[in-house]
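FW: tagging you since you asked about this chain on Friday. Here's the raw sequence from the shared folder, copied in full. Didn't touch anything.
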Amino acid sequence: MAATSTNTRNRTGETATGRCAGLCTDEGFAAAHREHAGRLIAIATRRLGDREHAEDAVQETFVRAWRACASFKGDGPPLVAWLTTILRNVLVDMIRARAARPQTAWDADPADAADSANPIDAALLRMDLLDALAGVSEEHRGAVLRTVVSDRSYADVAAELGVPVGTVKSRVFYALRGMRGALEAA
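HL: got it, structure written out here
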């Protein structure tokens, strides 16, 4: 029968004790990875929006956990809470690093690249939007053009048109809803 993780040798060659709950052993660490990596990847993917970066974050989380495994106490919070805290710190570091450096071609959104790479698709999209905009009433169209397209506040547009702010908001809402319906139908 194999030795339990609490009496095997840890990464420094010392006998592991209950102090780190067996996490400092190869077997304990592998078991923790098998049990929690999937959940951590899901959390990181939601935060970063990219599976590859999420996997990098989880890998860094386990590297940090391995280096600090003696600080994990088995009688404290569950292992997943400790790993999630480490992951949160890794994600903060990654997001700060991403914000501090300019965007590279690898970080660019593929949808943005597709629009700029294919002017025909961009022109077709513009035509669809113009058709959808033409399908709403003149009052609604004017509200959308003045607020959304011209990037003006509802208050400014309301003062210009001589209507309450709520009326402008309502017109924009219903115009956008009508345009969305026309685009979905197309």
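FW: The radius of gyration is 27 Å.
HL: agreed, and Confidence is low (pLDDT under 50) at residues 1-18.
FW: great, closing this out.
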